[in-house]
Each structure stands twice: as C-alpha cells, then as structure tokens.
Amino acid sequence: MSEGPNLPGKVEVPIPQEAFDWYDEYAHGLIDRRTFLARLSTITTATLTMAMLLPALLPDYALAEQVSFNDPDIKANYLTFPSPNGHGEGRGYFVKPTALSEKGPVVLVIHENRGLNPYIKDVARRLAKAGFVAFAPDALHPLGGYPGNDDEGRSLQRSMDRAKIEQDFIAAAGFLKSHELSNGKLGAVGFCFGGYVVNMLAAAIPDTLNAGVPFYGTPAAKEIRKNIKAPLMIQLAELDTRVNASWPEYEEDLKANKVDYTMHMYAGANHGFHNDSTGRYDEEKAELAWQRTLDFFKKHLG
After folding, report:
1. Nearest 5 degrees, angle CA 7-CA 12-CA 14?
2. Residues 6+ apart with CB under 8 A from 60
C-alpha cells in the first residue's frame, strides 16, 4: 500500500495512495459517496481514523487563499457576459492589477467540475497579482452560482447541458479577449474539467486563443484537434492514470498537426496536485507548475 503526501495542518500520518485514487473516482462521479466512504473504512487504523482521513481528502478552502481578495495590488468584481449559444448569460469573477494603466494580457481561468469555488477565485487573484487581467466564469451561474460546497456543486454541474456549458466558456473567451483592458492576447488555464475546456477552446476557437495551459485535462474531441494553433503547456500528474491514459493519442495528434506544445509530467503527484485546499496538494510541484505557467503566458501573451 503506497503512501501519498500529507496536507500541512491536517494529518500527521501519511495517507495511503488508495485514498487519493478513491477520492478522484468519487470527485468525478465514478463512485458514489457511500462507496467512497466504504472503501475508506477498509484502510482506517487506530492511528489513521475516518475523522482524520475525510478532512485531509475533502477541500478546506480556508487553506486556499494565497492572495487576499482585499490585497491592494488587485481589484476584483463580478461581470456578466452574453452567451447566446449557451445559457443566454454568463457571469464570472474579474480581477485586474491595480497598477494596470493600459491594456494588458488577459487569461481565462476555468474551474473543475463543481463551479467557481474559492480555490479557482484565488487562482484568478494570483494571476492578477502577477500582472495579468483574469476572468473566472462560473458554469453554475444559470442555477444560481457555486452553492458553497463541492458536493452540491458537482451535482448541479452534472445536471446541466454539457454542450451549453462549453458554449458559455467559448462566449467568455470572446468576451475577455475583446474587453477594453485586453491587449488582444488571450490565454486560458484550467484544472481537471477546466483542463479539458482549455483543450476544447484551443480546438474550437483556434483564432481566439493565443496560449493554453491545461492542468490534468482530457483532450478535445478527436475530429477538431486538427484545428489547434495556440501553443500549449500540458501539465500532468504521474499518479493520475485516468487522465494520463488519454495523453499518448493526444500527443500523436499534436505532433501530426505540428502544434507547439510542451508536456510536463510531475513525478509522484496526484490529480489535483495544484489545489492547495486538499491532501493531494504538492507544494513543491504546484509552485514549479505555476511558475512555468506564468512564464509561458508572459512569453506568449506579452
């Protein structure tokens, strides 16, 4: 039984890798909560109880604020945008550098399969802190927005029309690229489902996206991959067998279409290793991946 990392301040005993694998299945709807808890019960011990495991695996968003919403270097608010081919209207978290005095590079931030949670909002603030104009749409806006917990958020997003959600993000990309603060160069970064959306945007709107960074995201539909023009930085986790299974075929298509891409595989990392609110977080690898992301956007977005 292999062991994964701990989340500082949560569990002192190493967490078995199986627990992270089961959480990934649960988080992506492959098993239900009852099955997830039943499996966890098989690895509990006197020193690793269920009361210790659950807080380590489930997100604690109090840990995911690297940049405060009232940081003087940024200004944040919410904007709506039209989405005629999606749900009619979208809404997102818009963050810009306070010191921005002219047009600058813009980055779309795309959440996981549970709506605009505090971690993703913090990612948008980190981008603004680094000098980018960031916009993080909430796919759950048509249903009232992120409900405050991931379980309900997952259920809500699962109940929605996937094609319309994708159209909402396509509309958000166009809205952000044409924003009055945009220099006309659009980047996109996304995580899990959001990683898939970055890949999808690269293929679906190749003349709109200028650079994409999908974190552990599956590829766009095979028939549209030939359209990809934007340079991509693919961020993958070694232990994420579910997503990694799609990489060899995707890489073949990227090579065949002469796409400018780089893939980084983070050894010993789990799916979600960039998310600092759960036990999957790997600080060293997350910081490396994030610095690579910022450098990539600076290179391609100006």
Report:
1. 75
2. 7, 10, 277, 278
Q: Please, how many CA atoms are within 13 Å of residue 18, restricted to the half-sphere of its CB?
A: 11
Cβ atoms of residues 154 and 112 within 8 Å: no
Contact 234, 228 (CB under 8 A): no
Q: Which of 4, 2, 8 is nearest to 283 (CA)?
A: 8
Distance CA 143, CA 156 (A): 8
Residue type, 250: Y
User: Is the Cβ–Cβ distance between 87 and 162 less than 8 Å?
Assistant: no
Please give the C-alpha separations between residue 278 and each of 155, 265, 270, in angstroms, as whole numbers. Answer: 20, 20, 11
Domain chopping of the chain, boundaries? 3-58, 62-301
Q: What is the token pair recorded at 36? A: 């997830």
Q: What is the CATH number of domain 62-301?
A: 3.40.50.1820
Q: Which residues are catalytic?
A: 192, 240, 271
Greatest alpha-carbon span in the chain: 59
Cα angle 184-187-266, degrees, rounded to a multiple of 5: 160
From first to last of the 302 residues of the chain, give the pLDDT tens digit. 344 544 444 445 688 899 989 988 988 888 888 999 999 999 998 888 898 888 888 888 887 799 999 999 999 999 999 999 999 999 999 999 999 988 999 999 999 999 999 999 999 999 999 999 999 999 999 999 999 999 999 999 999 999 999 999 999 999 999 999 999 999 999 999 999 999 999 999 999 999 999 999 999 999 999 999 999 999 999 999 999 999 999 999 999 999 999 999 999 999 999 999 988 899 999 999 999 999 999 999 98
